[in-house]
Amino acid sequence: MFYNWAMKNLALILISLLIITSCNTASDFDKYKQHVITLSSDEFEGRAPGTPGGIKTKNYIADHYASLGLSSFGDSYLMPVNLTGVNLVVDQSSFDLSVNGEVLELAYPSDVVYGTTRQVDAVSFQDSDLVFVGYGVNAPEYDWNDYKIDVKGKTVVMLINDPGFELKGTEFNGKAMTYYGRWTYKFEEAARQGAAGAIIIHETAPASYPWGVVEGGWSGEQLNLTFEDNNIGRSALEGWIQLDVAEQLFATMGTNYAEMKAKALSKDFQPVPMEGMQLSATMVNELRTSDSHNVVGYVEGSEMPNEYVLIMGHWDHMGVNPTLEGDQIFNGAVDNATGTAAVMHMAETFSKRQPKRSVVFIGLTAEESGLLGSAYLAENPPFEYGNVIGGLNLDAFPAIGKSKDITIIGFGASELEPILSKHASEEGKYLAPDKSPEAGYFYRSDHINFAKRGIPMIYADPGIDLVDGGLEKGIAAARNYTANDYHKPSDEVRDDWDWSGIEQDLDIFTNFIDDLANSGEYPNWYEGNEFKALRDATRD
């Protein structure tokens, strides 16, 4: 009798514990959702660094870390990043592109966006000759040089992406973008070549985003790290023009865009002076300096506290653009309130555990301004790179329901992948390559600054092979977001969001980090990867 009674009550206790556990799990994910909703609310004003909304955001994350009792590197979770904002005073500035002495009528920002990364009150130049330099690539390892003439003092005009996008063969990395295809590289190289101005021709397919992304991202204040020399080594002007503007320019040369693009797809390409075309420009700036912050906390390892596993996501977005009509707040719900909330969620999870290795939770600033927060942290790390086991970057989770896959940006790169694959398969999911390698997303998010120091990083996105609707529905949803919401005020939390896929993937990512934090593994990049030698050097 007593045995039956005890077993009956034990069963009731176990059922109660299961219910409690289930409720706690649900409650934890409800907290995650609330973080996303809060961070992307109008109250946070688009989370631009150095603004009231940005200050509110970093304090929100730091307060969360404090509530969990996380450890810090130093006396604060807030690690300073010195920034300077350059805001073009449009009505006092000018972009006079002349053809045979006649200035074209170009509207800012619908036809052209321009500015300077020099941190000065004003900069100008006159009558700079235009030169078409193809893709603007100087890559000795590919035996490719688009700068076969002296362009000092000239304004170079360039195609977006790299030649591999069109060639799709052995040149560069085929359709998958290399760093040479990134706009950041193109402006950097133009400066190294001594160009006074650098202009990229926008084209939606090879850019992987429409003009609206350029218009929204390049108008308004532009942030950068603060430079002692005021960044005077950069070209005086950096800008973009619409494709139809380029077509107009090439037509006056007796050619067209397609013909010039075809010429640029050869190693033998010679830069083409754009006869009769000159640029005169004046940029009057409002300067603002501010101290933004990365937000960094960690759970100290119980057995290997000086070995670190990194989890990162950028907390910033694009703030408020008062030049826009209607909604002016870039709420950044998907990009990247979802990833920031994921870092906060996983911090709470690991604060209740005792991993063998230390797990570091990093909220990064100024990603949207050129991966600035991660660049600063990578230059000033609070840990030895040889002691970092690996890391996970979380950037933009679309709430489109459960999927059969997890997308890996830069698939086939490191020994982190089979570890993640193991935990994905436990949930009936598989790892899939990025469906748009031409977009170069591997080089467009914060993890790249740590990869360039040899640290294996995995950039994982929720999948698009949906349980309900398959790849067709998932790809359509991804394309819809890119076309209509990415870097636009419409990136907001909506009532029709299906959060179930995010919840499942957060569990997988948590198990992946738990595995890294409690194993003795020291993963590396795969043989032949561009970062493997750097990884090997950290252990010498």
Can you characterise this structure?
The N and C termini lie far apart (68 Å). With 540 residues, the protein is α/β, with parallel strands linked by helices. The chain is globular, with a radius of gyration of 25 Å. It has 15 helices and 18 strands. The chain folds into two domains: 29-71 and 300-538, Aminopeptidase (3-Layer(aba) Sandwich), CATH 3.40.630; 86-287, 3-Layer(bba) Sandwich (Glucose Oxidase, domain 1), CATH 3.50.30.
What is the fold's blueprint, element by element?
Elements: H1 2-39, H2 52-68, E1 78-88, E2 94-99, E3 102-103, E4 112-115, E5 122-132, E6 138-139, E7 144-145, E8 155-159, H3 164-167, H4 183-192, E9 197-201, H5 204-207, H6 211-218, E10 222-225, E11 237-241, H7 243-252, H8 257-263, E12 272-299, E13 304-314, H9 333-351, E14 357-364, H10 372-379, E15 388-393, E16 405-409, H11 416-426, E17 430-433, H12 448-451, E18 457-462, H13 470-484, H14 500-518, H15 532-538
Parallel strand pairs: 5-8, 8-9, 9-11, 13-14, 13-15, 15-18, 16-17
Antiparallel strand pairs: 1-10, 1-12, 2-3, 2-12, 4-11, 5-12, 6-7, 12-14, 16-18
